[in-house]
Amino acid sequence: MDVDLRNRIYAWFVEHGEAPAPEEVGADEAAFQRLHDEHALVLEPDSTEIRMLNPFSAVATPYRVETDGGSWYGNCVWDAFGIPAALGVDGHISTNCPYCGTPLEVDVVSGGRGRTTSSPTSWCRHGTGGTTSASPEAR
Question: Which pLDDT tens digit goes with each residue over 81-93?
């Protein structure tokens, strides 16, 4: 795997808040395809446009992450928690309950290595019969 290229892609993504084109990071389309084939990133179907660079999403998702350094989307709520952790910064996650649409907000402190103000499994109990999948009552 071309780790240097992968690192340049991550750096671009963090700095610009969007995925680079191959030429913006000194690569060609074949290099992006190789990283896709090696599961280092996910490309859009039949394209060399990056869709996912875990934990970042290059397309808008319901999992918005904001930090003092920028804002990004996570692929899922767990990836949203991974963004501040990967960057070593505090952050704020905004999403909505997938069952009822209730806005859900959480602050991630200590660069994702400390505590959060709440857990995604305790944000909302709609659609789960009063329990969350991670709660002891659901097991």
Answer: 999 999 999 999 9
- Report the phi/psi class of residue 14: left, alpha or beta, with left for phi > 0 and alpha for psi in -120 to 50: alpha
Cα four-point dihedral sign 125, 131, 136, 139: negative
Roughly how many angstroms between the first and final C-alpha of the chain, as a whole number? 40
Q: What is the pTM of this model?
A: 0.79
Answer whether 93's CB lies under 8 Å from 99's CB: no
Question: Burial, 16: exposed, middle or buried (Cβ in 10 Å; 0-12, 13-18, 19+)?
Answer: exposed
Residue 29 to residues 1, 12, 47, Cα–Cα distance (Å)? 15, 16, 9
Q: Whole-angstrom Cα distance, residue 74 to residue 78?
A: 8
69, 75 contact by CB (below 8 A)? no
How big is the CA angle at 17 (ends 39 and 116), to the nearest 5 degrees? 85
Per residue in 4-50, pLDDT (tens digit) is 999 999 999 999 999 999 999 999 999 999 999 999 999 999 999 99
